[in-house]
Amino acid sequence: MAKERSEEEQIETGDQVEQAAEVETPSAEEQQAAEEALAEELAGGESALEEEIASLHQQLADHKEMVLRAQAEVQNARRRAQQDVEKAHKFGVEKLIKELLPVVDNLERALSSINTEDEAQKAVAEGIELTQKSFIDTLTKSGVEVIDPAGEPFDPELHQAMTQVPNPDVEPNTVLDVFQKGYRLNGRLVRPAMVVVSKAP
């Protein structure tokens, strides 16, 4: 009896092992399908990672460009501010210079109207001349340049022609006389010189 039971148990155990072996071992087709599914899943994961990496690279490039633009804007603003400060230093006194120029003109007119032959007026003329020279020197220190173009070719950027006079002795468009001197402040024209210009007879 014991022998028969042990043989039956052995047979049952062998059947169970065979069934388990049958269950655990998939067929070649199933194995191939499983491998293909795993490969597709891995490929899909790689593709998603590549897309995410590409997106991050694009975002990085965009942020770099934004930073570069911001830096350029800051540099431009700084440069403009510096230029404005330089202009303020150079041309801040332009309005004052324009208001002082008539004083220089009046001193010149006073000098031209005095008779220097008269001893009584000679001292006055010397005083006015020294005052005018001191005035011009002060303006020159501030960057003012006198434009007195008598005998020079006419320059429409610096001179204002009041009239033209025929003159065979000089080249046409030569400044014959200066009614009123012009002035420049650090290279910028403050007032053009008013002149008489020659023309061909």
UniProtKB/TrEMBL annotation:
| Low complexity bias (residue ranges) | 28-47
Keywords of the record, alphabetical order, are: Chaperone, Cytoplasm, Stress response
- Which Gene3D superfamilies does the annotation name? 3.90.20.20, Head domain of nucleotide exchange factor GrpE
Specify one Pfam family.
GrpE
Highest taxon above the source species: Bacteria
Main localization is: cytoplasm
Task: Check the record and name the InterPro entries matching this protein.
Answer: GrpE (IPR000740), GrpE_CC (IPR013805), GrpE_head (IPR009012)
| SUPFAM superfamilies the record matches | Coiled-coil domain of nucleotide exchange factor GrpE, Head domain of nucleotide exchange factor GrpE
Chaperone keyword on record:
yes
Q: Where is this region: Disordered?
A: 1-50
Q: Where in the cell is it found?
A: Cytoplasm
Q: NCBIfam families, from UniProt?
A: PRK14139.1, PRK14140.1, PRK14150.1, PRK14151.1
The record's family statement is: Belongs to the GrpE family.
How does this chain assemble?
Homodimer.
Q: Could you tell me what this protein does? A: Participates actively in the response to hyperosmotic and heat shock by preventing the aggregation of stress-denatured proteins, in association with DnaK and GrpE. It is the nucleotide exchange factor for DnaK and may function as a thermosensor. Unfolded proteins bind initially to DnaJ; upon interaction with the DnaJ-bound protein, DnaK hydrolyzes its bound ATP, resulting in the formation of a stable complex. GrpE releases ADP from DnaK; ATP binding to DnaK triggers the release of the substrate protein, thus completing the reaction cycle.
Its protein name is Protein GrpE
Name the gene for this chain.
grpE
